[in-house]
Amino acid sequence: MYSRPMFVVLRREIVACTRCPRLVEYRERIARERRKQYRDEVYWGRPLPGFGDPKARLVVIGLAPAAHGGNRTGRMFTGDSSGDWLARALHGERFANRPTSRSRDDGLLLRDAYITAAARCAPPDNKPTRDELAACRGYLERELALLDRVRVVVTLGKIAFDAYLAACRETGVALPRPRPLFGHGASYALPNGVILIASYHPSRQNTQTGKLTPHMLRSIFRSARRALTSR
Question: What per-residue string of b and e applies to 157-176 under the rule 16 or more CB within 10 Å gives b?
Fold first, then answer.
């Protein structure tokens, strides 16, 4: 999965990161205390790199690892309902080989897709601060530079949407004017040749209230598949 040497180097740097004291304290405390249903498990409790196909044309950007999801399992969007929602949508459009994401060794393989996030540590209340997001942005920029075949970026939630635009700005990618605005299903053709597609995040807050339905999320990745097929 991390066959390219620079991916290996970046992954090691991310996993060892201690830049944000608040996030270090929170992720490690959650890993020690653990949720009752996972009390017999050893939590990951560290920052998370992205994962997937290093030759991917599709990149999916989320918010951050969940305290008892990625922070427990050691893989983005794995071990919680958000991960299963995303895996089902990716599987439905042939970007994944299975419709669930439960553990690092569950056999999930991404095809032509790579999953990453705006923040690499689980934040309290799922709310990283502006400074914490800025501290993580360099990792996202480096991942995007290594993923040199990307043609479609799907952002899950406004924070991920803004993080990708900030990464573009920091790396010298011109943005269209007026500035792209977040909205579920909004799509933008960027000057760097990437199609940016915005989606609501598959958080419980959105899925349990009906703000995001399985059909709505699947349609996002159907649009991504169409965009790749037309190129």
Answer: bebbbebbbbbbeeeebeee
CB 165 within 8 A of CB 192: no
* Pair of tokens at residue 168: 């573009």
If you average pLDDT over every residue of the chain, what do you get? Answer: 96
Instruction: Report the greatest alpha carbon distance in the chain.
Output: 52
Q: What is the DSSP letter of 118?
A: S
Rounded to the nearest angstrom, the gap between the alpha carbon of residue 31 and the centroid of all alpha carbons in its chain is 21
Domain 5-229 bears CATH identifier 3.40.50.1820: no
If we measure between CA atoms, which residue out of 100, 50, 77 comes closest to residue 156? Answer: 77
Reported residue count of the chain is 231
> Would the pLDDT of 174 be above 90?
no
Of the two residues 17 and 176, the one the predictor is more confident about is: 17
Q: What is the pLDDT of residue 231?
A: 67
Q: What is the DSSP letter of 96?
A: B
DSSP annotation of 210: T
**Structure tokens of 68?**
């008892």
Q: Is the pTM of this model over 0.85?
A: yes
**75 neighbors 88 (Cβ within 8 angstroms):** no
**221-224 contact pairs (CB < 8 A, 24+):** 221/89, 221/90, 221/92, 221/93, 221/95, 221/154, 222/92, 222/93, 223/185, 223/187, 223/197, 224/58, 224/93, 224/95, 224/152, 224/154, 224/195, 224/197
Is 190:173 a contact under the CB 8 Å cutoff?
yes
